Amino acid sequence: MATSYKELGLVNTKELFAKAVKGGYALPAYNFNNMEQLQAIIQACVETKSPVILQVSAGARKYANATLLRYMAQGAVAYAKELGYAIPIVLHLDHGDSLELVKSCVESGFSSVMIDGSHLPYEDNIKLTKAVVDYAHGQKDYVTVEGELGVLAGIEDDVVAEHSSYTKPAEVIDFVKRTGVDSLAISIGTSHGAVKFKREQCTVSPDGVLIPPTLRFDILEEIEKKLPGFPIVLHGSSSVPIEHVRTLEKFGGKLKDPVGIPEEQLRRAAKSAVCKINIDSDGRLAMTAAIRKVFAESPAEFDPRKYLGPARDSLKALYAHKNREVLGSANQA
Ligand code: G3H
Ligand code: 13P
Ligand code: ZN
Predict the structure, then answer these.
(1) pTM > 0.85: yes or no
(2) What's the DSSP call for residue 315?
């Protein structure tokens, strides 16, 4: 039996995006695949009174199990209430690659999906995206759809791009009209993972920190002019905070040339047409750094709660900071 997201207490992105565009802030879209991440997201978003998009990739769904995820999302709604504030919660498929996957997610309670046809030729992207929109909008409870135009650089488990290309503003009106998507992810220089730029693309600060090139705000502004008031999404928006990188490295971790998107650029984007900002890598980084610290400092510790607990606290602090200081989503629930 299919489950509608409304039965789980979830909402789609429609009204949340309309409010965010008007209010000049972005909704956090945090990826998760386990209980501690979910606890941290809900704790941080309740504390900051922020709406939230819980984001699940195909890989995360496989890892966590689709049935468990459904109950975790339902549990998240109840948990927020128990913590004292019923924030709006969206369950969103991240980087969906087929109508079959979208159907399976919608049937198990997702309220929003991304169909990522950005690697396909333009007309194929339109065809796939439109098929997903027809299906999602045709449900008894309207499921919102995010499409993507332009290719991000970067490599993750299931999200791989060797060659990036910026979104062409000339295409956005046609794409949105012909597909009927509710929001559009664009490529303006962000990328997935903790190494977002090559060293030679960056300048280096006196203390050795890589400073990346500025995002292409000119492209964002052109798109905004063509689609006034239309919700734009930024993927690959982790900042790769230096304090977490340093902790990770201090306790044995190694990353080659980590560099993210500076917070002030994300703040600027959030004030514009960008109303959803995707963050996964920063969570991974904060969590792993905290776990490494416990392992290094307390080698006799083997109760998972003793290292997952501090990791969860570190995650919560990271998300609360983003909601308050970067996305502007605090006090918008
Ligand atoms: O954009 C991709 C997300 O960070 C998900 O990554 O496929 O490794 O779960 P994943
Ligand atoms: P980061 O790798 O920058 O966290 O981006 C995550 C993302 O775009 C998920 O879709
Ligand atoms: Zn992404």
Answers:
(1) yes
(2) H
- Residues lining ion ligand 3 (Cβ < 5 A) are 235, 278
Q: Are 92 and 61 in contact (CB under 8 A)?
A: no
56-94 pLDDT, tens per residue?
999 999 999 999 999 999 999 999 999 999 999 999 999
For the chain, the structural domain boundaries read: 11-327
Give the span between the Cα atoms of 117 and 102, in whole angstroms. 13
Which fold would CATH assign to domain 11-327?
TIM Barrel (3.20.20)
DSSP characters over 123-174? HHHHHHHHHHHHHHHTSSSPPEEEEEESB-EEE-SS-EESS-B---HHHHHH
Is the pLDDT reported for residue 43 higher than 50? yes
Residue 238 token pair: 């982790």
Q: Which of 112, 156, 196 to mutate to test the pocket of ligand 2 (most atoms within 8 A of CB)?
A: 156
Q: What is the pLDDT of residue 157?
A: 46
At residue 321, what is the residue type? H
Q: How far apart (Å, rounded) are the C-alpha atoms in residues 266 and 262?
A: 7
Cβ of residue 59 lying under 6 Å from some atom of ligand 1: yes
Q: Torsions phi, psi of 299, nearest 5?
A: -60, -20
Q: Summarize pLDDT for 295-307 with one digit per residue, the tens.
A: 999 999 999 999 9
Question: Quick one: DSSP state of residue 201?
Answer: G
Annotated catalytic residue 94: yes
Distance CA 248, CA 257 (A): 13
Is the separation of the CB atoms in 270 and 206 below 8 Å? no
Q: Which of 301, 307, 259, 305 minimizes the C-alpha distance to 287?
A: 307
Ligand 2: list residues with CB < 6 Å: 31, 94-95, 192-193, 235-238, 278-282
- Of residues 86, 53, 85, 48, the one with CA closest to residue 325: 48
Nearest to 173 by CA among 230, 115, 125, 227: 227
